[in-house]
Amino acid sequence: MKIFDYEIKNRFLALTGLLIIISLVFIPDKYGFATRVFCGVLGFICIGISTGNKKFISEAKALFIIVIIALSVKVTLLEAYIVPTGSMEKTIMTGDFLIGSRFVYGMRTPNWIGIPYTDIGIFIPSVRFPKFKEPAVGDVL
């Protein structure tokens, strides 16, 4: 018997994919939509690899790369926001969708690194990247 049996590997990947997809129900909202998308794609990739379908595997790899690029842009350059309250109703209505640039006023690194879905982690000093522009009077931040 081989140490890495092909069928055992396929069953493991299929089970891992199913567990990841099922865990999407239990991911707390504080981890956001991006975490759910990443876990969903990862789960489907695991299930697809376990089937051995070469077309699915190549498409899953392409989808995975697209998701990584999209999440990188979201984390570093742009962020989508929804206006939660009516405190700015003269200029912005409740429920409006906004795209904000993280890059113009200087990005910050996360100040917490830890294990996802737990409170286990460490706080680190936050680093702020150089700014291209200082906020001016009348800018909406």
Automatic annotation (TrEMBL):
CDD domains given in the database record: S26_SPase_I (cd06530)
Family annotation (Gene3D superfamilies): Umud Fragment, subunit A
Residues annotated as transmembrane: 12-27, 33-50, 62-83
GO terms under biological process: signal peptide processing
Species, as recorded: marine metagenome
Name used for this protein in its record: Peptidase S26 domain-containing protein
Keywords: Membrane, Transmembrane, Transmembrane helix
Domain annotation Peptidase S26: ranges: 60-132
Molecular function in Gene Ontology: serine-type endopeptidase activity
Signal peptide: none
